[in-house]
Amino acid sequence: MSEEKAGPAKAGWWTPMLHVKSIERSIPFYEQLGFELIDTDRCEPIGWARMHCEGGAVMFLRAEEEVDPSEAPVIFVLYTPALAALREQLLAAGIAVSEIKRPEYMPSGTMHLSDPDGFSLEICHWGDEEHTAWMERIGRAPNKGAGES
Question: pTM for the complete prediction?
Fold first, then answer.
C-alpha cells in the first residue's frame, strides 16, 4: 500500500478502545444500542472485538486486571432520532437508564446509562431539526436554490 502525498498527513477513523472485564458481556449490551459486531480475535475467551454503529465504532480489549472507569473520566456520547423509543427498548431489555432530561445544551432530550464495566454513556436526541439547526450554526447549511425562501 503506497502513501498518498497530496496534502499534510492526518489521522482518522477515531475508534475508542475500552478495557473491559468481559467482552462477551459487552457485546450484547452494545448490540442493544444498535452496534453490530464486526470482528473478534476468535479466541475463547474473546480478547479483542470491534463493533460498528452508524457513524462510529468501538473496540474492546480484555482487561488483565480490574478496570476503574473513574480513572479515565470520559463520557461516550451517542445520538438517536428516537430517544424515547430507545429508552423504552433498553428498559424492556433490563438495562438501567435515566429519565430523559432536557438540559440547555440538549433541549430535545438526553439520557444517561452505564455499560457493564461502568463506563458512562450519554444518548442524545438528534433528529432532522437538530441537525439542520447545527449545520446552520456552523455555517454548513446547504445553499437554497434560486427562487426558494
Answer: 0.79
